[in-house]
From TrEMBL, chains A, B:
Organism: Streptomyces lacrimifluminis
Protein name: MarR family transcriptional regulator
Domain HTH marR-type: 7-146
Gene3D superfamilies: Winged helix-like DNA-binding domain superfamily/Winged helix DNA-binding domain
Domain of life: Bacteria
Any GO MF annotation of the entry: DNA-binding transcription factor activity
Length: 156, 156
DNA sequence: GCTCATTGTTACCTATACTCACAATGAACT
DNA sequence: AGTTCATTGTGAGTATAGGTAACAATGAGC
């Protein structure tokens, strides 16, 4: 904590950078005609990630926690993805309260297109960095992500 | 470019991280009763930065370029800041088209409160990093910011 | 003086995420 | 049984941040 003066500008840079990344991502998704928004893209990848790690499709609440948003925000995203046929709401036989979100064939296809768009956006932003620098950045981000996982609906 | 597979996750982490930063920033601004939004905060600091480097107050177009948004977006932000008395629209005597944005005393006061909020938000997010790691991160972000400055209203 | 580029704005739309309130359901404890 | 309480998802409404398109006013060049 000997040089706290650097944190403000550092935060600025992070925010500006991510604004660019978000815009590039959105642009790529439009360009390639994937037909989804960045937030929907994030949900789809979270969905895929959950399937790989748990086997069963996630509940709305699972997605909300993973995405670090309130459950209500997930509803809107799933609504849009369901309308465009990328996901499917499936009632859970074990509990009639929960809804499982399944990936459709169309959704799987979108996922692979989406990965290309995301990689292109990342590439556009990260272009100035060498592989080594990217590795270092990745390590730092890992450290940051592990540290401060405070969800918005914390009850403190 | 030997490990492009890492870029996708890297982009994810960057976006998630900045979502946290943005939320923390907003939270801090509310907590301390500064009475402005994160985007307004960014505009105020850009304004201050311009004054330090140019002496004269910036035009709307200058702010738009610096903030990397379309001029229309600046209008809304300045509207809000003018209503709350943080800035002042001043017609330029040299050209009746341009409007100079000046900082009021209230705005200067907000700027110092704002800096505290921003530092606190950055500190909350960057807590897991040592000073040395922050320096490294700062260097990487510098490299990234210099590289890809493509404004949204590019005419390509 | 006519044409054209610049500057900011009015009007409208989209995306994201929030709060609050609520209905349906499950669980737990009389 | 039934009553109370927590969980789960959603409807309604709001705020923030940004974008496009059209336009009026102005300045500049021919």
């Amino acid at each position: 904590m000997s040089s706290p003066d650097a944190d403000g500008p550092l935060a600025d840079q992070l925010l500006s950078l991510t604004r660019r990344l978000h815009r590039s991502h959105k642009h790529q998704l439009e360009e390639r005609g994937v037909g989804i928004t960045p937030a929907q893209s994030r949900l789809l990848r979270t969905l895929s990630h959950h399937l790989q790690h748990h086997g069963s499709p996630p509940r709305m609440a699972d997605l909300a926690e993973r995405l670090e948003v309130v459950p209500r925000a997930v509803t809107t995203l799933v609504d849009a993805l369901e309308v465009s046929g990328k996901v499917r709401r499936v009632p859970d036989p074990a509990s009639r309260r929960v809804i499982r979100i399944e990936l459709t064939d169309d959704g799987r296809k979108a996922l692979s297109e989406l990965r290309g768009a995301r990689r292109a956006a990342a590439e556009e932003i990260l272009a100035p960095l060498t592989d080594e620098q990217r590795t270092v950045l990745g390590g730092l981000l890992d450290t940051l992500m592990d540290g401060g996982g405070a969800p918005p609906d914390r009850r403190c």
